[in-house]
Structure formats: structure tokens, C-alpha cells
Design goal:
five-stranded parallel beta sheet, 454 residues, 55% helix, alpha/beta, 17 helices
């Protein structure tokens, strides 16, 4: 048998312990080194990620700069480069250009530069065309006085009780920009001046009716210069029609027939009404001014019952700004100052040789007396139509209780009619007749102091 030395056995038993302790030491030493190495590498990796992010950001900025530059160069050199392409490509692009209609860029008139003498606010009164005429006068006055005009306020308290604002009826942006070479127009006062108005530190006044422009130069302008803001209320018929400077008269016409454009919604509906009428042949527009407010204001009660006459009289006294209260209806009629009744209108159209079967569009509000007064006209001319009969109720939903917007529809249809016949020489008759003359429209009849002429 072999003999084993004890010392060898002991040494062999101690070797695994030494090896284990050595391995544990190396392991501890390795882990500490790794930890140190990891700690030294962390800042380096953060810096690397930051560098990568900066490179990406810089590259993105450079790429976008190149795109912008290339786009600009393309607009300049693109057409020239395309000339060198094969004819098939250039012809194809030409065909595409032909298919897409070019929209002409709107050219705005240059702004008129002048020393602003202050701000003019205006409050219009009456129906649509009465307010329209007043706006024309006030723009001309603002231009003459070298002041800034604030977009007009419309009447909301008269017989019609229409809550519409200026922008509900007219294209306010077109109104401002189309007149910028004549007068500065703002939608509202600057805040500091608006505060003065709210505090009552400005002056309000109704100008004198049918005044010459010199009245505004010598009486109104000094007030504007003193108070900075003046508000003119009740502005209808406040500037004389005749004897004014020629440039003033031209500006009044320009405002009326160019700057005062209706909103796109009103114009679109007006075109629909005209198309519906045109589908059935030529049409005549009859401005039958036989509404309650007209009869109460004028005192013309021909054909009215006693109860209706009393109602009209009460209404006339209810409005203090209607100055004439006691009216002799018979005498006024003899003087030719009353509107034609529906019965008289039927006789007149027959006498003028108007075809019995032509379409007649009634451009008016509610006729006083209703079907009873319209019976003879409907019998003589059976093709009577109104916007309410041509359109669906849903089409007029937004126009209900907005008499000025309804009147705007009638105005547009009146401009495009084959024949225009007013039964009273009022604001709408005058404005439409002038507008049709400017447009070179078709036949129309004029009613002046009880006489018809064409």
C-alpha cells in the first residue's frame, strides 16, 4: 500500500480554500474595476448622445434651409428650366394650366394719406335704402372733413325692428378696402376713445336736414377737433342732393354702386331667386310700396276702411320723428304724393301694355289689407310671385324678422329684372333706377309726382 504523507493531505485540503478565497478576491477586484469603469463611461455616453442630437438638429435646420432656397429658386428659374424639357412635357403642363382657371389677384387701391382731424360715428335710421343713402352722404362728408369714419350703426328701433348690424347686410371688409384711397374707415374706435364715448365725454347730435357741405365744414368739424369724436344720429337726408362739389357727388355714387356690396350669403340667395325666375322666361319687378309704414307716414288712406284709417293714424302719432301728423289724404292724393294702390297698379300696367302672362315679382313687404287689396291685381296678372313662394322656408330661415336683409334680396332681383316698375318715388325706386342706369340694364319706368315715364 502506498503511504501518504499527512503534510500533503493537509496542504491539499488547504488549496481549495486558498483557491476559493483567491477567486473571491479576484471577483471583488473585478467588480470594483467594472463599477469604476462603468462610472467613467457614463459621462462619455451622455456626451455622445448629446453630440448625436446636435448633429441631427443641425442637419434638420440645414435641410429645411435648402428646401426654402430651392423653392425660391424654383419660382424664379422653374419656367426657364421647363422650356428646355421635351415638348410632350411642356404641352402636358400647358394643358393642365388651361384646365385650371387663373384667379386674378385683387388689386387694392393705395391708401390715402392725410392728417386725421378726428373720428366720425354715425347712426342710420329708416329702412335699408334710406340707410344706404345716408351712408353714401356720410362717407362723402368724412372724406371732405379729413376724418376717420367708424363703420355705421344701423337702425334697430324703427317700425321694422331689424336687429341686423352692418356686417350682417354688407361686406364690411370690401366696404373698408374699396374706399381706402378716399377715407380711412375703422370697424370700431380705438380703445382710449371708446372709453371716452362710454363715459359720455363726446358729443352726439342730429345734423340739419338737406345741409350744404359748408355746414359740416364750419359747424361739425370744429366739434370733432374739440371732442375728438362726434356721433351723428338720424343721418337720413342730411346732405343736399344738388349744388355740391363734383368730386363729392362722384364719391356718393361710388359708395352706393360699388362699395356697398351685400354679403356673400345674400348675394348667393339673390342669384338663386333670379335663376328660378329666368327658368320661366322674362320677369317684371313691381316695387309695390303699399305697406303699413308707408301709408301711416304719408297719410294716404284711399280704399282703406275706417278701422284701418284709425290704425294708420295711431301709428303716425306713435313715431315722434314723423313730423307731419294731420294729413288731408284726398288733397295729398291730388298732389301726386301718394303711392299707387294695388287696384290702380293693375290698371296702370294694363295701360302700359304689359303682357298679362308675364311673371311679376312683388318686391315689397306685407301688403296692407292683404288678399282683399291684392285681388284685382292678381286677377289681371295671375303670375304674381314673391321670394316666399319661390324659395323653401328653410332658405329664408335666417332672414326671418330681418326686413333689411329681405329688402336686400328684393334689391338684387330688381337690378336684374327685364322691367322695373316702382309705384312710389321713394328711396328704393331712386337707388335702383340709378343703379340700373349705371349697369345699362333693361327697361324701367319712373314714377315722379304722380306721372309715369319710361
Amino acid at each position: 500500500m502506498c503511504r501518504v504523507d499527512r503534510s500533503d493531505v493537509k496542504s491539499s485540503l488547504r488549496e481549495p480554500k486558498k483557491r476559493g478565497s483567491l477567486e473571491m478576491g479576484l471577483k471583488a477586484f473585478g467588480e470594483s474595476k467594472v463599477e469604476k469603469l462603468r462610472n467613467t463611461m457614463l459621462p462619455h455616453s451622455s456626451r455622445s448622445r448629446m453630440k448625436v442630437w446636435m448633429i441631427r438638429a443641425t442637419t434638420t435646420v440645414l435641410l429645411w434651409t435648402c428646401v426654402v432656397q430651392l423653392t425660391a429658386l424654383g419660382e424664379t428659374w422653374g419656367p426657364r428650366v421647363l422650356l428646355g424639357l421635351p415638348s410632350c412635357l411642356s404641352q402636358e403642363s400647358a394643358v393642365l394650366d388651361d384646365k385650371v382657371p387663373a384667379v386674378p389677384a385683387r388689386v387694392l387701391p393705395p391708401k390715402r394719406v392725410y392728417k386725421n382731424n378726428g373720428y366720425l360715428m354715425i347712426s342710420c335710421n329708416g329702412g335699408l335704402n334710406q340707410m344706404r343713402a345716408a351712408i353714401c352722404d356720410m362717407v362723402a362728408i368724412a372724406r371732405h372733413l379729413n376724418v376717420t369714419l367708424i363703420v355705421p350703426e344701423l337702425d334697430k328701433t324703427s317700425f321694422w325692428a331689424d336687429p341686423s348690424d352692418f356686417h350682417d347686410i354688407f361686406d364690411v371688409d370690401h366696404f373698408i378696402t374699396s374706399l381706402r384711397d378716399e377715407v380711412r374707415i375703422l370697424k370700431e374706435l380705438p380703445p382710449r376713445l371708446k372709453m371716452r364715448v362710454d363715459q359720455g365725454l363726446t358729443i352726439q347730435m342730429p345734423p340739419i336736414s338737406w345741409s350744404d357741405i359748408s355746414y359740416y365744414q364750419h359747424q361739425v368739424l370744429p366739434l370733432i377737433q374739440k371732442y375728438k369724436v362726434v356721433k351723428l344720429n338720424r343721418t337720413d337726408a342730411r346732405l343736399a342732393n344738388n349744388g355740391q362739389p363734383l368730386d363729392l357727388q362722384k364719391l356718393r355714387c361710388r359708395v352706393n354702386f360699388s362699395a356697398l356690396r351685400f354679403t356673400s350669403q345674400i348675394e348667393e340667395l339673390g342669384r338663386r331667386v333670379i335663376q328660378l325666375l329666368r327658368k320661366n322666361g322674362p320677369f317684371l319687378v313691381l316695387h309695390l310700396r303699399y305697406e303699413m309704414d308707408m301709408l301711416a307716414f304719408s297719410g294716404c288712406t284711399q280704399g282703406c276702411s275706417d278701422a284701418e284709417t284709425d290704425e294708420l293714424t295711431r301709428m303716425r302719432y306713435a313715431y315722434p320723428w314723423w313730423k307731419e301728423k294731420i294729413i288731408d289724404s284726398v288733397q295729398k292724393r291730388k298732389d301726386g304724393l301718394c303711392p299707387l294702390t294695388p287696384e290702380e297698379t293693375a290698371l296702370t300696367l294694363r295701360a302700359m301694355g304689359i303682357d298679362r302672362y308675364i311673371q311679376i315679382y312683388i318686391a315689397a313687404g306685407e301688403i296692407y289689407g292683404g288678399e282683399r287689396r291684392m285681388a284685382s291685381l292678381a286677377e289681371a296678372y295671375p303670375r304674381l310671385v314673391r321670394k316666399e313662394t319661390l324659395l323653401e322656408p328653410s332658405d329664408l330661415r335666417f332672414f326671418q324678422n330681418h326686413s333689411s336683409q329681405m329688402a336686400a334680396l328684393d334689391y338684387l332681383v330688381s337690378l336684374e329684372s327685364d322691367i322695373f316698375v316702382p309705384t312710389y318715388d321713394g328711396n328704393m325706386a331712386k337707388v335702383v333706377e340709378g343703379h340700373r342706369n349705371i349697369l345699362g340694364s333693361r327697361r324701367q319706368f319712373y314714377w315722379t309726382e304722380g306721372f309715369w315715364w319710361s
